[in-house]
Amino acid sequence: MTILAVLDEVLAYYGGDAEKIHIAGLSNGGIAAFGAMLLHPERFATLLGAPGLFQAQDPARWAKAL
């Protein structure tokens, strides 16, 4: 199950506004949050991340997604 499938399941079960989804994470969760935002920026309103060390840095790609 992907993060988007979980997101869709939570929205279907609990309701909510799909336009106001916020993602956050610390350490590895922060890296995962950044990864989700980079892959699917249209699905998240904001990102709050405190990641550990990134494997590769691509600030231009981050800026475009964020």
Description:
It is a single chain. This protein has 66 residues and is an alpha+beta fold. It has one domain. The chain has helices spanning 3-14, 28-39, 59-65; strands spanning 22-27, 46-51. β1 (22-27), α2 and β2 (46-51) form a beta-alpha-beta unit. It is globular and about 35 Å long.
For the largest beta sheet, what order do the strands appear in spatially? 1-2
Q: What number of domains?
A: 1
Q: Average pLDDT across residues?
A: 86
The global form is globular
Strand tally: 2
Rg computed from alpha carbons, rounded to a whole number of angstroms: 12 Å
DSSP helix fraction: 40-55%
Biggest β-sheet, characterized?
2 strands, parallel
Which residues form runs of ≥5 with pLDDT under 50?
A: none
Query: How much of the polypeptide forms β-strand, as a percent range?
Result: 15-25%
Distance between the termini: 25 Å
H/E order of the elements? HEHEH
DSSP summary: helix tally: 3
Structural class: alpha+beta
